[in-house]
């Protein structure tokens, strides 16, 4: 099975209250050096077999039409999730 990752972020001019709340909490919890926090959304789309160019094109179209709100969000990434990356992310959690 293959997976495609779609990352969506609020446009820079849109206020991000959740990001601001996290940004305010970081120093109180001892995490310093961060100047801004923006929150976003991540979608993982799974396909049977290997990811093809057609799958990626369909994922890009879905990202623009369904997974994001183009008025306030940008699709920042549509990419194949590599197996090693998936295992690394599972280990981090």
UniProtKB/TrEMBL annotation:
Taxonomic lineage of the native organism: Bacteria, Bacillati, Actinomycetota, Actinomycetes, Micrococcales
UniProt-listed Gene3D superfamilies: Phosphoribosylformylglycinamidine synthase subunit PurS
Species: Terrabacter aeriphilus
Role played: Part of the phosphoribosylformylglycinamidine synthase complex involved in the purines biosynthetic pathway. Catalyzes the ATP-dependent conversion of formylglycinamide ribonucleotide (FGAR) and glutamine to yield formylglycinamidine ribonucleotide (FGAM) and glutamate. The FGAM synthase complex is composed of three subunits. PurQ produces an ammonia molecule by converting glutamine to glutamate. PurL transfers the ammonia molecule to FGAR to form FGAM in an ATP-dependent manner.
Recorded family membership: Belongs to the PurS family.
Pathway(s) annotated for this protein in UniProt: Purine metabolism; IMP biosynthesis via de novo pathway; 5-amino-1-(5-phospho-D-ribosyl)imidazole from N(2)-formyl-N(1)-(5-phospho-D-ribosyl)glycinamide: step 1/2
InterPro entries the record matches: PurS (IPR003850), PurS-like_sf (IPR036604)
UniProt subcellular location: Cytoplasm
Subunit (UniProt): Part of the FGAM synthase complex composed of 1 PurL, 1 PurQ and 2 PurS subunits.
EC number: 6.3.5.3
Catalytic reaction annotation: N(2)-formyl-N(1)-(5-phospho-beta-D-ribosyl)glycinamide + L-glutamine + ATP + H2O = 2-formamido-N(1)-(5-O-phospho-beta-D-ribosyl)acetamidine + L-glutamate + ADP + phosphate + H(+)
Top enzyme category: ligase
Record gene name: purS
Keyword Cell membrane recorded: no
Entry keyword annotation includes Ligase: yes
Record's keyword terms, sorted: ATP-binding, Cytoplasm, Ligase, Nucleotide-binding, Purine biosynthesis
Coiled coil, from the record: none
NCBIfam families hit by this protein: phosphoribosylformylglycinamidine synthase subunit PurS, PRK05974.1
Protein's name in the database: Phosphoribosylformylglycinamidine synthase subunit PurS
